[in-house]
Design brief:
With 220 residues, this protein is of the alpha+beta class. The chain has a single domain, classed as 2-Layer Sandwich (Alpha-Beta Plaits). The protein contains six helices and ten strands. It has an eight-stranded antiparallel barrel with strand order 1-3-2-9-6-8-7-4, surrounded by five helices.
């Protein structure tokens, strides 16, 4: 597979349009994941109880796949609502470093436990960090039933900024993961590599993927 397109959106929306935004967004994601083979994963969630501070993660097989989605009728409907709803948008283009999913396609929502972690890592420690995080997450994906998605990306415009997005079956699965020896080793050794770390628990709105994604893109 070519290197997928991997993006993180921070969206602020108005309270008045929250219900319409969520509804048309869900239709957009569910239709796209069923009808567009090149749309590999789409995850929408929010940070605050009111659902006005949103995070969206998208993965496409390639530029042509994104173009197909961008010209779809379901995206056109979403875009019309977004014009009214979105008051601020920030987009981070990410270089995928580790993208892992369970083989079974995901159709998730708020019942799953999702977390977004944003890290600062000096460029000269990036390769060592990628080796460490891969050694921790890849076996976990194979061994832990409750770990459904693990995505690790490096910002294109700021290589010191990294993002980790994880989806677990539930909170219990996340807590069990944090008790594993591999995670404990990761926690200890990553302290020597990471300058800052900020973890945000998300409430899932619509979490969908094709399943089976495995991408390891090593730093050269």
């Amino acid at each position: 597979m070519n290197t997928p397109l991997f993006r993180l959106f921070n969206l602020k929306i108005t309270a008045k349009e929250r219900e319409a935004f969520a509804k048309v967004g869900e239709r957009n994601l569910l239709t796209s994941i069923e009808n567009e083979p090149g749309t590999l994963a789409m995850y929408t969630s929010h940070v605050d109880p009111a659902g006005l501070d949103n995070r969206v993660i998208e993965i496409y097989r390639d530029t042509a796949s994104y173009d197909q989605h961008a010209h779809s009728p379901q995206f056109a409907a979403f875009r019309e609502v977004a014009k009214r709803a979105v008051t601020r948008q920030e987009v981070s283009q990410l270089t995928p470093r580790l993208l892992l999913e369970k083989p079974t396609p995901l159709r998730g929502d708020a019942s799953q436990f999702s977390q977004l972690t944003e890290l600062t890592i000096p460029v000269d420690r990036a390769a060592a960090y990628q080796t460490l995080v891969t050694a921790s997450i890849r076996p976990a994906m194979a061994a832990e039933v409750g770990l459904l998605v693990a995505l690790v990306g490096q910002a294109v415009d700021d290589p010191t900024r990294w993002v980790i997005f994880e989806v677990f079956q539930d909170l219990a699965a996340f807590k069990a993961h944090c008790q594993t020896p591999a995670f404990q080793i990761y926690q200890t050794e990553s302290r020597l590599l990471i300058t800052t770390a900020d973890a945000t628990v998300l409430t899932g709105d619509t979490l969908v993927n094709q399943g089976g994604l495995t991408v390891i893109n090593k730093i050269q």
